[in-house]
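Reviewers of the previous submission asked for a worked example of the structure-prediction workflow described in the proposal, so we include one complete record here. The input consisted solely of the amino acid sequence. No template or homolog information was supplied to the procedure at any stage.
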Amino acid sequence: MKKAKQPILYVLCALSSFLLEYLVLFALEYFFGAVLSEMPQKVIARLISSFYNFNMNNWLVFRGNESYWKKLLKYYCLVVPSMLASAGLLALVAKWTRIDELTAGFSRVKSAALHTLINAPVDVVMMIVNFLVQKYWVFVQKKQE
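From that input alone, the workflow returned the following structure tokens.
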């Protein structure tokens, strides 16, 4: 069970970050939707949730012994390429599954549900890759001299 603790904590932190991001998106749309377009809302929500996620991972999951600021810089060096890779993989999966063609006549709810469903495999792959990069690079335990 001890070996499973770190991945379980990682997944719980990721889920709480996901919920925070969507709560922030909802709040931004609700309060500022008339003056703030969708892209800035997403960027603000992602910045808030990723900062929260970094701190939760730093505090609960990994606890590397490098300085806070060095870990934070490395974390954001992971976040940006990770977002781009995720978007690229989602575009490939959408093209491969022809999801847009398949859902063309569906209701918005059914179409959104199917689009969300194709996100799951990509999200799982990205979560595993991000866990490994964070464990072995961002929050690495340096040997004490």
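Residues 2-32 form the longest helix (31 residues). We consider this example representative of the routine output the project will generate in years two and three.
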